[in-house]
Specification:
single chain, 153 residues, alpha+beta, 7-stranded antiparallel beta sheet, 29% helix, globular
């Protein structure tokens, strides 16, 4: 039964995303953290990791793989916490506010191809990572970067 849900999701998504390239690995997006999708030239992943740890692992991974990091943009913004059924989630900071955190790394490879890695804090323990290589994307290189980030976590 657990395997039917991801399979059903893949079938539904394939119907509604005709014309879009969609590759699901790791059991599908519905499987939660660790799921990877390559959509429209961008590798997208949901990781069970704190934002700061993911940010540091990304910086290290790009350097380890020989990319020249041109820009590191990190943003922290206080936002009103969204109501939740779980009271502990309503007030993560004890102030009725949460912190929206994002980071964008812009780098270049040896061929001067632009590499962009974006991170977004989804919760205290989950971070979304998006990797794009060049204008049209390069799935192999994107996955190589994602794999190196994961090794550094």
């Amino acid at each position: 039964m657990k395997r039917l849900l991801p399979l059903s999701l893949v079938l539904v998504l394939s119907v509604f995303s005709a014309g879009c390239e969609l590759l699901l690995i790791g059991g599908g997006i519905a499987a939660g953290a660790g799921a990877v999708a390559y959509v429209a030239g961008e590798t997208k992943s949901l990781e069970d990791v704190e934002f700061e740890k993911a940010r540091k692992a990304t910086d290290k991974a790009l350097t380890q793989l020989g990319y020249e990091i041109e820009q590191r943009d990190v943003s922290y913004e206080k936002v009103k916490a969204q109501p939740s059924d779980d009271e502990s989630q309503n007030d993560l900071l004890g102030l009725g506010e949460d912190i929206l955190a994002t980071a964008t790394f812009t780098a270049r490879d040896a061929d001067d191809t632009k590499v962009v890695v974006k991170l977004q804090k989804l919760s205290e323990t989950q971070t979304r990572l998006n990797v794009r290589i060049g204008t049209f994307g390069d799935e192999t290189q994107s996955r190589k970067i994602l794999d190196q980030i994961r090794k550094n976590l």
